[in-house]
Amino acid sequence: MPYVRNMIAMAFLVLLTLPLAAAAETRYVSDQLVVTIRQQPADQAEVITTLRTDTPLEVLADQGRYLLVQTPAGEKGYVQSQYITSDLPKPIVIDRLQKERAQLQQKLAAAEKAREAAISELQKIKTTLATESQTTEQQVTELKSALAQARSELQEATERYDTLLANSREIVNITNARNQLEEDNARLSAEIEAIRQENKSLLTTGMIQWFLAGGGVFLIGWLVGKLSRKRRSF
Question: How far apart are CA 210 and CA 5, in angstroms?
């Protein structure tokens, strides 16, 4: 039993001497020019390295006055906690703010450039719309003029059509009259020809009759003369 108690006591002492475990987190060297990292949590312990202000450290254990840390180079050692802070150092804050400011200025410049481009594009659109509007108004005016001219031409065409229609009716009447005249002319020509034929026939008959009549007179005269001579001879 005394042996067990001694073992428990020794284990307890060992636990007390071990660094207290702490959640791993990043802290920074506070406003000091140079901070030393030692092998043991004691002011006289051997120095491993020195760190400048704002160097980020990974805290492995918190032992109150000392912190067990790991440097960006992978070195582990102890540093006094009073020189370490969780707050972001001012130079880093300033650097980040300057970077953010530069980024914002770039974004602002890009936004201004985009704004100017948008204004330029808007002006072009306005100019194009104004030109198109003028063109449209001119086209409307031309269309109205063309429509008026088309209406005038339609009116003239309608009048010419009515005139032609009236003339066509007159032409039909004239054509009918001409056809009637041609028919009458043909009929009269036929009648005239018939009359001519008839006159020709009558003339021929008259000549025959005249010839016959003349011959008879001649024959009678000849006979009378001959009879007269015979009587004288007796």
Answer: 202
* Beta-strand relationship, 84-85 and 66-70: unpaired
pLDDT per position as a tens digit, 193-224? 888 787 777 767 766 666 666 666 666 776 66
Tell me how far apart the alpha carbons of residues 127 and 120 are, in angstroms, rounded to a whole number: 10
Tokens for 76? 């582990």
State the DSSP code for 83: G
Burial call 68-89: b when 16+ CB within 10 Å, e when fewer: bbebeeeeebbbbbebbeeeeb
Average pLDDT, the chain: 76
Alpha-carbon separation of residue 32 from 68, 69, 114, 138 (angstroms): 18, 17, 46, 81
| pTM for the structure as a whole | 0.34
**Residues 13-26 pLDDT 10s:** 444 454 544 456 77
Task: Please state the domain extents for the chain.
Answer: 2-87
Classify domain 2-87 at the CATH class level. mainly beta
Structure-token pair, residue 18: 């071990």
- Give the span between the Cα atoms of 43 and 187, in whole angstroms: 161
- The alpha carbons of the chain give a radius of gyration, in whole angstroms, of 74
Please give the backbone phi and psi of residue 21, each rounded to the nearest 5 degrees, phi first.
-70, 140
The alpha helices in 18-89, defined as continuous H runs, are none
